[in-house]
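User: Quick sanity check before I run a bigger batch. Here is a single chain. Can you write out its predicted 3D structure?
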Amino acid sequence: MAGKGNVAVFSKKRRWAEIDIFRGLAISCMLIVNALPDFSEAYPLLLHSSWEGITLADLAFPGFVFAMGLSASLWFPKHGREAALKKAAVILRRGMILFLLGYVLNQVPLLLQHVFYPEAGASLWEEMASHGRILGVLQRLGLVYACGMFAAWRLKGDVSLGSFALLLLAVSSLGFHLYSPAAPFSQEGNISMAVDSIFPGKEHCYMQGDSDPEGLYGTLAATASFLWGMLAGRWLTRGGAGVLALAGVALLLAGGLWSCQDIVCKALWTAPYVLLTSGGFMLLLFLLQQLLGWGPDLAVLFAPCRIMGSNPLLLYIFTEISLMLLWTIKTSSGQLLYAWLWENSLKGVVSVPFSIFLFAFLWLALWLLAAGYLARKHIFLRV
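Assistant: Done. Predicted structure follows.
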């Protein structure tokens, strides 16, 4: 598998180690959070905040969006002289492929239920049409990528791009306050939930709930996360370490001030959430740049992260399908296989919360081995 289509041979052109490492940290965090075998007794830091606040788990997805912006910052310099229609086609194609991959991935649980536990009643196609989830992680990445790339195409300067990112956050915030002035971020009713009720509709939301954590309205602010990542990538590749650090501090301060007005909420992807996470990511990127600049020996310490960051899309899809399978298959006693594996391996050996973390970490280590194998075989998923 090499050279053509969506799978490409590893390029011998210069790769920015900081970007690969950052992307590897983001996907590693996501894999650990998704692989917890028991959410009821896990460390709170590894769980998404119930509504307001930020945990380690809440950094995984925005880190992935920010990393996508980092990578996108390298695209325009390489393709700047190509015809406008060709560039637009590439951007739209990538966005659509990500969206379609996400939609297909969302239907895998329904497919597995029909394969392992066939019952009389609705067909797979009928269930997909009636309550199959439409939006999700990859779908948001596809929408954000397309919106962010077209914005960066038109707004070439750093100041104009940063101003547009702030405008997106202001529009997002204003929508919450105009829709429900008395309680703009209420869990019982907000503009994001209102949009979700129209599209994709409650029956097609996550767990068929009242709203979707990757709903359409949150795409506004998530695009700002992408644009901050793109700006960080520009400063990184230009050698602007000082600008990167100052911007990170400025965004953290702005996020803290904005949180006096709006809540910090991952589920709604609020403006303070974007500013705080993006500011922190910029400072992390600055730190990585400084550490790698001290000498090649330090780069070896980050080799696992770089391996994970070289193939994040393929790893995400494979791990999600694997988890869906393990959470579907039942043992002879009726217990779900994934929970059974944890209970019959690490549970009881150490404290329950630590055994949950350790089991998820071993899951990550397993996929690190897989990522290393794929890298050696030059197998990478590109869209």
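The CA atoms of residues 99 and 139 lie 4 Å apart.

User: Great, the batch can go ahead then.
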